[in-house]
Recover the amino acids of this structure.
């Protein structure tokens, strides 16, 4: 039962954010010029690229023990 105290609010916030995004998109989509769509696609692409790259670096650092270094020496 305790996990539902976390899951239910997360689902509610997720549903509210999806509703807001869809409503905003439908309301303002007719005002976006063609170059605006390219800007949106580019922003999403580069955000995912940077996020994926940073996650890859975090996993690489963890796998090779760089996170375990103390005083510049490996354990």
């Amino acid at each position: 039962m305790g996990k539902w105290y976390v899951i239910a609010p997360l689902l509610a916030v997720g549903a509210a954010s999806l509703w807001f995004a869809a409503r905003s998109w439908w309301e303002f989509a007719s005002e976006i010029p063609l170059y605006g769509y390219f800007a949106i696609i580019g922003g999403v692409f580069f955000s995912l690229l940077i996020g994926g790259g940073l996650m890859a670096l975090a996993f690489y650092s963890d796998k090779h023990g760089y996170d375990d270094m103390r005083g510049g020496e490996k354990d």
